[in-house]
Write a structure and sequence with these properties.
Elements: H1 13-81, H2 98-103, E1 105-107, E2 110-112, E3 130-132, E4 150-152
Antiparallel strand pairs: 1-2, 3-4
Length: about 170
């Protein structure tokens, strides 16, 4: 492999080495700048994608938690409709609170539990859920405390599909 050497430097090998080293350092600095610029661009593209991925994961968790809670409410209602246990008058067979689903009800000397634990709302980070009773207005955000007909998140944020989380 041959290198082209400047004709002015042909007689002085030390000077040729110094210039070669300067050129090598200069190229390294340019390469460093270019590499840094590329990393900045890639990072600026990756951060929004990571945020969307995190939000999508929380949305999946929210859907799963809502399904779990609603399934437990439905199983409680089915058992109450079959007269497996006594319910409070005016409750329409729905549970009085979420703790009842976890703690269970006595059925013939045995505890009938419908939920292992109250899941943490992934959007708010708490175990506090918005609740609706059978007597509440469907658009109401307040719970009258009679029974639990439905649950929703207390988050006021908007989902990736443009809907409000509390409307899920």
């Amino acid at each position: 492999m041959q290198f082209a050497i400047d004709k002015n430097l042909a007689g002085d090998p030390r000077r040729a080495g110094q210039i070669f080293r300067r050129r090598a350092l200069g190229f390294t600095l340019i390469e460093l700048i270019v590499a840094t610029a590329i990393l900045v661009i890639l990072t600026s593209l990756a951060v929004p994608m990571a945020r969307v991925t995190i939000k999508r994961t929380k949305e999946r968790e929210l859907r799963a938690d809502l399904w779990e809670l609603r399934d437990a409410i439905d199983r409680y209602k089915d058992a109450a409709d079959r007269s497996a246990f006594q319910t409070k008058v005016g409750s329409e067979g729905y549970p009085p609170d979420l703790d009842t689903l976890v703690n269970g009800v006595d059925v013939g000397g045995k505890k009938l539990k419908f939920l292992r634990r109250i899941p943490v709302d992934p959007m708010t980070g708490s175990k506090e859920w918005g609740m609706r009773s059978m007597q509440d207005d469907p658009d109401s955000d307040s719970w009258d405390g009679n029974n639990i007909f439905d649950v929703h998140t207390k988050s006021t944020d908007t989902a990736l599909d443009g809907t409000k989380y509390k409307d899920w």
